Amino acid sequence: VYNNTIDSQQLLLYVLRTGTGTVITVKNNVFLTPGFTGAYIAVTTGMTMDYNYYSEADSTPIHWGGTNYSLAAFNSATGQEANRRAGTAAFGADYTPTASSDTVGFGVDLSASFTTDRAGATRTVPWDMGAYEYIPNSLRLFMQAPNNTDLARTN
């Protein structure tokens, strides 16, 4: 689960494993304003979390196997989220990072899995957290196709 921007006033990341299999890795995600929980992990076996950002989070933004954790307590109890960040994301209304966003340049390089953001812009090193790459001094145009798929162009 890589490079998502989750508006936690509307959604949360909910993971429920019903069987064994590969590891589920959660990295470079931004949880915006999780008023109660941004990440709800019901079954923790095979789960890893790191390099995620919690914007204006409540005191316990992670629910892990039946326990609500603060970011520091989660790291202490599990050893995970050692590279987490927290603060105010400074995103625009379209969830793109602004120049003052402290999500810019703090993600982990995942170019072995993909190289573009949600709008098709090329990700650069150091990687940004969240669904969109910060593009300085540019105009990002979004268009909606008839089948509700996003078409995007970066100038």
Write the layout of secondary structure elements.
Blueprint: E1 5-7, E2 13-15, E3 24-27, E4 30-32, E5 39-41, E6 47-50, E7 53-55, E8 62-64, E9 67-69, H1 71-78, E10 85-87, E11 140-144, E12 150-154
Parallel strand pairs: 1-4, 2-5, 3-6, 4-7, 5-8, 7-10
Antiparallel strand pairs: 8-9, 11-12
Structural features:
155 residues; mainly beta; 4-stranded parallel beta sheet; 1 helix; 5% helix; 27% strand; globular
Summarize it.
The chain is mainly beta and 155 residues long. It is built from one helix and twelve strands.
Structural summary, described in words:
This protein starts with a strand and ends with a strand. The chain has one helix at residues 71-78, and strands at 5-7, 13-15, 24-27, 30-32, 39-41, 47-50, 53-55, 62-64, 67-69, 85-87, 140-144, 150-154. It is mainly β. A hairpin with a 5-residue loop joins strand 11 and strand 12 (150-154).
Order of helices and strands: EEEEEEEEEHEEE
Number of strands: 12
Structure class: mainly beta
- Unreliable spans are none
Total helix count?
1
Distance between the termini: 28 Å
Using the alpha-carbon principal axes, give the shape: globular
Strand order of the largest sheet: 1-4-7-10
